[in-house]
Amino acid sequence: MNEYTKKKLVKNWFKILQEVICKDIEELEGKKNIFKSNKWLRGKNGNEGGGEYRIFKNGKIFDKIGVNFSEVYGKFSKKFKNKIPGTKKSAKFWASGVSVVMHMKNPNVPAMHFNTRYIYTSHGWFGGGIDITPCKKDQKLKKWYHKELKYMCSKHGKNYYKKYKKWCDEYFYLPHRKEMRGIGGIFFDYKKSNWEKDFYFVRDVGIIFKNIYREVIFKKNKINWNKKDKELQYIKRGRYVEFNLLYDRGTKFGLQTGGNVEGILMSLPPLAKWK
Predict the structure, then answer these.
(1) Which CATH superfamily is domain 3-267 in?
(2) How many helices (H) and strands (E) are present in the chain, helices listed first?
(3) How far, CA to CA in Å, does 122 sit from each of 92, 191, 252?
(4) Is 224 helix (H, G, I), strand (E, B) or coil?
(5) Distance CA 15, CA 8 (A)
(6) Residue 125 CB neighbours (<10 A)
(7) Spatial distance between the Cα atoms of 219 and 1, rounded to a whole number of angstroms
(8) Is residue 67 helix, strand or coil?
(9) Residue 80 confidence (pLDDT)
(10) Contact at 8 Å (CB) between 49 and 72?
């Protein structure tokens, strides 16, 4: 399979997944056409790809949700290209991805994040992951959630779950706070061992995320909450903001490669607090 075909398949899957998740959110909210769509183009002349970010706010379940798709290409800056594999001979790149961030109205429902991407320089690789951030400790939820991820990973590789869970725990860590952002999940990058198998895994990551957020919402959204719970949620969101602005690779990649600023920062919650 040539690289053009691979890029087309990946891009189409990411775009389809954006559409499927948005339709699913509308079903959960009980309303149609709730997302505000924002399309953008990259480059001075708008000829280096672009994308679409969709945002919905103030729903009955979601305080804010963003669902992003992008396909961009061009050249990395001299400073940035040294940080990216496969750019020794050329600064040219192509990248596509889909990402979702959910900030919930009910503090009993954790914030949830998912992304998958494919980047091509002199060679291509996949990356992505799933993580969730509850406000309160919930061992039952944590056990169920990791069991679901482990089962999905086991279909693709014996050591996938153990490896990607560890990577997630290490990645979503705030060193200045000496604490994890949430209860982890899976995180992977530079995945390029077997393209067909890797793409199959990436598709399954998207599917399991959809299954997980639906089940979590059904389990937790009917639980009553009070003002104290909401204040705790706002403080936890502050940690989310700190991580995304200080450490998140996707945020840095997008901002340093001419991505759409509003689309990149759609991951930030509508309201957060600090003590």
Answers:
(1) Coproporphyrinogen III oxidase, aerobic (3.40.1500.10)
(2) 8, 9
(3) 8, 14, 21
(4) coil
(5) 11
(6) 19
(7) 43
(8) strand
(9) 80
(10) yes
pLDDT tens-place string over residues 152-180: 999 999 999 999 999 999 999 999 999 99
Distance CA 43, CA 74 (A): 8
- Give CA–CA dist 198/75, Å, rounded: 25
Under 8 Å CB-to-CB from 82, ≥6 apart: which residues?
A: none
d(CA 129, CA 73): 22
Give CA separation, 232 vs 191, 227, 271, in Å: 37, 9, 12
Which letter does DSSP use for residue 109 in this model?
A: S
DSSP, collapsed to helix, strand or coil, labels residue 219 as helix
Query: Which DSSP state fits 197?
Result: H
pLDDT, tens only, 64-117: 999 999 999 999 888 788 888 888 888 999 999 999 999 999 999 999 999 999
CA dihedral sign, ordered 70, 233, 235, 161? negative
Which tokens go with 44? 């001075």
Distance from chain centroid for Cα 220: 21
| Cβ-based neighbours of 89, under 8 Å, separated by 6 or more | 122
Provide the token pair at 184. Answer: 């982890």
Tell me the C-alpha distance between 34 and 36, whole Å: 7
Domain boundaries, the chain: 3-267
Q: Which residues are catalytic?
A: 113
**Residue whose C-alpha is closest to residue 86's, from 200, 202, 192:** 192
- Please name the residue that has the structure tokens 């949700």: 65
Token pair of 127 as six digits:
């990356």
Helices 195-220, 3-29: inter-axial angle, 10-degree rounding: 10
pTM of the model: 0.94
Of 110, 100, 102, 99, whose CA–CA distance to 184 is shortest? 110
